[in-house]
Design brief:
Structural class: alpha+beta
Number of helices: 8
Bound molecules: pyridoxal-5'-phosphate
Largest sheet: 9 strands, mixed
Strand content: 25-35%
Radius of gyration: 19 Å
Distance between the termini: 21 Å
Oligomer: single chain
Order of helices and strands: EEHEEHHEEHEHEEEEHEHEEEH
Length: 286
């Protein structure tokens, strides 16, 4: 079992994988990425991730050098070659390498990178007891719906979270409304209703967010996609966050304030179980 890379058509170890110092991903963050969970050697919700990647690439006019089917077979191949069953796949496509100038180069080939690494999910204790979060001003740009490489505000927010002993940083805008987390989407539960920010340019439309909304509705739980405030976040009965590497995690303390009963709530716990069940079914886990 070993981590592997696939760079511009070539499989190699991570140590041997190379891209140019003139790559526009490196110089400008001019590229897109995605992270896909692999369970039991099978990519989970791959179609949805690929759909988002192709949409982002189209918006930013970055041509993806492979069709969806070709991507699927490269991903299958890198997982097989690595021998890793529980993993995260990191996909990055940049506009390519070219002498530095802001405007798009006329003739440039995109740089395509895929990395597979072992990943076993969030710490069991956090899942059982719930996580802490902090809030952080949302200083990001106006197209958070695109999964671009420009993650400096997210990096700063998560660094602050770690310094404060928290798992996640939850972004709020100047008027106090909540957008999402630095690597997750945010949900609150109030009087049995689940609330999460609606799709817009202020949030990334998470694949896990969509899955959890669907699962909740199938269970007969009311889900409303609407803007909610910092005040509502602090006063929620339950708070949870969702993401590819996070799955669904209860948040039991925010900025030092206890949320609800201070432990994972009933709705969050049942949605967590249902999400794990969905992964099991789709990825053929025992
Ligand atoms: C800012 C942000 N929001 C939400 C998510 C969750 O998205 P997904 O469920 O597709 O992983 C991520 C994941 O990386 C993210 O970076």
């Amino acid at each position: 079992m070993r981590s592997l890379a696939f760079v511009n058509g070539k499989f190699s170890s991570l140590e041997e994988a190379k891209v140019s110092v003139e790559d526009r991903g490196f110089l400008f963050g001019d590229g897109i990425y995605d992270v896909i969970r692999v369970r039991n050697g099978r990519p989970y919700k791959l179609e949805k991730h690929l759909k988002r990647t192709f949409q982002c690439a189209k918006e930013l006019e970055i041509p993806i050098p492979y069709s969806k089917d070709e991507l699927l077979s490269i991903m299958t191949e890198i997982i097989r070659k690595s021998g890793i069953r529980e993993a995260k796949l990191y996909l990055q496509i940049t506009r390519g390498a070219y002498p530095r100038a802001h405007e798009f180069p006329q003739e440039v080939k995109p740089t395509f990178v895929l990395i597979v690494r072992e990943y076993n999910g969030v710490d069991e204790v956090l899942i059982r007891e719930g996580a802490k979060a902090i809030t952080y001003p949302d200083i990001r740009w106006g197209r958070c719906d695109l999964k671009s490489l420009n993650l400096l505000p997210n990096v700063l927010a998560r660094q602050k979270a770690v310094q404060m002993g928290a798992y996640e940083a939850i972004f709020h805008k100047g008027d106090g409304h909540i957008t999402e987390g630095a690597i997750t989407n945010v949900f609150i539960v109030k009087k049995g209703t689940v609330l999460t920010a609606p799709e817009s340019r202020e949030i990334l439309s998470g694949v896990t967010r969509e899955t959890v909304i669907k699962i909740a509705r199938e269970k007969g739980i009311e889900v409303r996609e609407r803007v909610f405030s910092l005040e509502e976040l602090y006063n929620a009965d339950e708070v949870f966050i969702t993401g590819t590497t996070t799955d669904l995690l209860s948040v039991v303390e925010i900025d030092g304030k206890v949320i609800g009963k201070g432990k994972p709530g009933e709705i969050s716990s049942s949605l967590y179980k249902a999400l794990k069940e969905d992964q099991k079914n789709e990825c053929n886990l025992q």
